[in-house]
Write a sequence for this structure.
């Protein structure tokens, strides 16, 4: 027996598009339960959406995403300092110009006030992005060496090592960093280096009167607060010649978790629990760290270790959930490939 | 049978509670905080990229459009209306850039021409053939569709945005969203025999 076309068929699409609400929607739901045509119509819309969702998307290249991120930040940074917007950011440019007057050099000097045009992002092997509006930094080119002086704030730095002879040295108030790799972040506050996080490659941190520290990809360094001297030597400003750099020293300080602040202790305690094999307690501690300090430079490490801790404790579902959370939070995270295999 | 769409997750509740709200990041971004732009990018790059890739289909163009989307969002961050997630707003910016570009028709066709080689997980060769046939029809139809209809269709059916969110993002009346959506579905249904209206 043919019942003909159901007169309520059009309502199925209306419901899907939120054009039916309240009692009308409830009544349709009841109707669909007993109407094969409307059920088929709803099913068709689901298949249609599923087909669209099945359209392929090229696989994500983590390094490419990271480069694109740097390119975006560099482009916006340039816009912030360009003439049309300089009035809006005049306080920032003025402060940097004032500080930059002291740094006289015969080399090409480029700084955030834009005294000289920066090379295009595509041509420049060194990409530097200030991560806070008040960051005070200068960049000097001296032959094959790029010197960056950071007095305050944070910088994300990425180096394309097209030319092996090219060197990048970042002078910080209490020492200097030499890039031996490609991507890292450095923070300076109150005249002291407060954090260094390396995403790719390796950097060497040399602080006055302290042993050098080699910080590898995936590691974050924070200072040992209790041992921090009251006055640290200030690094020389950029000079005319290419300053000789000492040979790479061996690591004499643990780069990660060396701080003794409450946050550092919290992180270190969580890692200690993991190392001691107390996986359940470690996962709780790491979860708490990620929850309480999402902006901390070690949060990504903690999120990664949380996944490991949950796996070790046998909580596969929890590990998968934590892995997915990691992927959501750190789209360009340096543990992404490993975490992706766990999230599946 | 559920009649509504399943919205694509914007991020689980736990994650949302752990992170700075998008609105706060957009406020910081409007003040020139580059770190905020980086975080917005980290959160929403994949969604924006997926949307753009499906609409433009040429990876090189997609990368530039994603860049332009986030750069535009940074320029107009002060105009963000403070909603919970800025993803619909970003998708809206991307959609507007796509419409302005008017260059994707050819690239979509090229992209979709590669679609035939995509493998299906179906173990049944017959159903696999049917599914591939339906998908091929879908891709061909989408390639022929007007940009305006295609964008609305992808925003609603793939990105899981509500019609009201699409209307707000594209700054068009919700009635226009419904009209474009209905027309787009009608084209798709006409192309796939099993989906034709009874």
């Amino acid at each position: 027996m043919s019942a003909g076309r159901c007169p309520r068929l059009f309502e199925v699409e209306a419901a899907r598009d939120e054009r039916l609400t309240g009692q009308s929607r409830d009544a349709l739901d009841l109707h669909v339960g007993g109407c094969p045509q409307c059920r088929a119509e709803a099913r068709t819309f689901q298949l249609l959406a599923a087909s669209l969702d099945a359209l392929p998307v090229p696989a994500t290249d983590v390094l490419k995403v990271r480069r694109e991120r740097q390119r975006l930040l560099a482009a916006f940074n340039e816009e912030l300092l360009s003439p049309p917007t300089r009035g809006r950011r005049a306080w920032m440019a003025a402060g940097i110009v004032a500080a930059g007057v002291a740094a006289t050099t015969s080399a090409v000097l480029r700084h955030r006030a834009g005294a000289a045009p920066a090379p295009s992002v595509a041509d420049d092997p060194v990409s530097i992005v200030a991560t806070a509006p008040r960051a005070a930094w200068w960049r000097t080119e001296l032959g094959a060496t790029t010197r960056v002086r950071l007095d305050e704030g944070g910088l994300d730095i990425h180096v394309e090592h097209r030319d092996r002879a090219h060197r990048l040295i970042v002078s910080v108030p209490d020492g200097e960093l030499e890039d031996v790799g490609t991507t890292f972040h450095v923070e300076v506050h109150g005249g002291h280096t407060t954090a260094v996080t390396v995403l790719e490659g390796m950097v060497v941190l040399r602080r006055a009167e302290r042993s050098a520290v080699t910080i590898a990809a995936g590691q974050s360094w924070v200072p040992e607060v209790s041992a921090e001297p009251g006055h640290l030597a200030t690094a020389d400003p950029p000079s005319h010649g290419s300053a000789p750099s000492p040979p790479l020293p061996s690591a004499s300080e643990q780069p990660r978790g060396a701080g003794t602040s409450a946050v550092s202790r919290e992180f270190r305690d969580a890692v200690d629990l993991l190392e001691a094999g107390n996986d359940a307690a470690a996962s709780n501690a790491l979860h708490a760290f990620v929850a309480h300090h999402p902006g901390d430079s070690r949060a990504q490490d903690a999120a990664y270790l949380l996944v490991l801790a949950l796996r070790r404790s046998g909580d596969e579902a929890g590990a998968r959930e934590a892995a997915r959370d990691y992927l959501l939070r750190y789209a360009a995270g340096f543990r992404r490939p490993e975490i992706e295999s766990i999230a599946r | 049978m559920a009649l509504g769409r399943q919205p694509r997750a914007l991020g689980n509740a736990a994650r949302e509670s752990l992170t700075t709200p998008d609105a706060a990041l957009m406020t910081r971004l409007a003040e020139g905080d580059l770190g905020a732009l980086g975080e917005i990018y980290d959160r929403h790059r994949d969604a924006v990229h997926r949307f753009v890739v499906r609409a433009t289909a040429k990876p090189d163009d997609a990368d530039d459009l994603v860049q332009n989307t986030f750069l535009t969002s940074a320029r107009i961050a002060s105009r963000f209306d403070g909603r919970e997630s800025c993803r619909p707003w970003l998708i809206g910016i991307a959609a507007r850039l796509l419409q302005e570009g008017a260059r994707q028709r050819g690239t979509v066709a090229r992209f979709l021409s590669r679609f035939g080689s995509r493998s299906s997980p179906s173990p049944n060769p017959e159903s696999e053939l049917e599914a591939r046939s339906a998908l091929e029809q879908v891709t061909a139809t989408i390639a022929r569709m007007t940009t305006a209809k295609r964008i609305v269709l992808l925003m609603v059916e793939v990105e899981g945005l509500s019609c009201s969110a699409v209307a707000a993002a594209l700054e068009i009346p919700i009635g226009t969203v419904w009209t474009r959506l209905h027309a787009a579905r009608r084209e798709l249904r006409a192309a796939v025999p099993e989906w034709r209206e009874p």
